[in-house]
Amino acid sequence: MYKINKIINNNFVCSINENREELIVRGSGIGFQKKIGDFVEEAKIEKVYRMSSETTRNKLQTLVSNIPLEHVEVCTEIIDDIKKNLKKKLNDNIYITLTDHLSFAIERKGMNLEYKNALLWEIKKFYHLEYQMGLHALDVINKRLGIRLIEDEAGFIALHIVNAQLDTDMSDMMKITKLIQDIIEITKNYYQIELNEESLHYERFITHLKYFGQRLFNNKSVKDDDFQLQHMIKTNYSKDYQCAELISKYIKDKFNRDLTGEEMMFITIHLKRITME
């Protein structure tokens, strides 16, 4: 049972459940002619949003108060489908950030103002699964609302998905994507080879670089205490370690950050694996 403690509009209310959790409940006409203290009609409930904090809850309240209900509905369907198929934990903020982005994209479409995605090529390469989910989301929007957004929006959706996985913000996500592209270019130029982008080792390297980028832009680093192993990696994989040093120099020159020995070791191992294929 859900008891109303705030009416957002006719279709959204804030509610307290039997476990004393504060939730946002959506349903057609769920708040119409209701007052605080009333119970939500169970048959009208279409979606219950369990947000992790009061801040995100307040942001979602503000958002759903200011955009069309059909935008919220279609975006929630898209996000729930992403969560189901991705099988990875996503930050609750995606209900706010992606819904806000797509609602604005739909609005801009009506004014013939669509944004080009400067990182679309990189997104297709590094976040292939998320990009495919973005394309599916465009199909859902077209089917539900009769609006066909351009392919660039699939790239933006992919970034929102990766952003929700890494629990970072969109500006950092753009920087992480560019960081990955630059490191891949350094690697290809050093070894003078094309990398097998379909391989498991390549996928693991990209995943490592995502989390490395997250740490970089959040001023965090991995521990640096296994010096014996680091020395062994540096000695046995000297050619790959030299490439890692070029990557380290790039990080230092561009971001003024020094890589720890542990980070150098991880990068070296990944470089060895992706270039052995």
- Which shape, going by the Cα principal axes? elongated
The residue ranges in which pLDDT falls below 50 over 5 or more consecutive positions are: none
Q: What structural class do helix, strand and pairing data support?
A: alpha+beta
Instruction: Give me the number of helical elements.
Output: 11
How many distinct domains? 3
Mean residue pLDDT:
90
- Classified in CATH, the superfamily of the largest domain is PRD domain
The total beta strand count reads 4
Roughly how much helix do the residues carry, as a percent range? 55-70%
What is the C-alpha radius of gyration, as a whole number of Å? 23 Å
Q: What is the level-2 CATH architecture name of the largest domain?
A: Orthogonal Bundle
The largest β sheet comes out as: 4 strands, antiparallel
Q: What strand order characterises the main sheet? A: 1-2-3-4
Proportion of β residues? 5-15%
Straight-line distance between termini? 57 Å
User: In CATH, what is the class of the largest domain?
Assistant: Mainly Alpha
Q: Which H/E pattern describes the elements?
A: EEEEHHHHHHHHHHH
- CATH third-tier fold name of the largest domain: PTS-regulatory domain, PRD
Any descriptors?
PTS-regulatory domain, PRD, alpha+beta, Transcription Regulation, Sacy, Chain A, single chain, 11 helices, 277 residues, 4 strands, 62% helix, four-stranded antiparallel sheet
What does this structure look like?
There is one protein chain. The chain has 277 residues and is α+β, with helices and mostly antiparallel strands. The protein folds into three domains: 1-53, CAT RNA-binding domain (Transcription Regulation, Sacy, Chain A, Roll); 67-167, PRD domain (PTS-regulatory domain, PRD, Orthogonal Bundle), CATH 1.10.1790; 170-276, PTS-regulatory domain, PRD. It contains eleven helices and four strands; from the N terminus they run ββββααααααααααα. It has helices at residues 54-66, 69-86, 94-110, 120-126, 128-145, 152-166, 170-191, 200-217, 227-236, 238-255, 261-276; strands at residues 3-9, 12-16, 22-26, 47-49. It has a four-stranded antiparallel beta sheet. Strand 1 and strand 2 form a beta hairpin. It is elongated. The N and C termini lie far apart (57 Å). The mean pLDDT is 90.
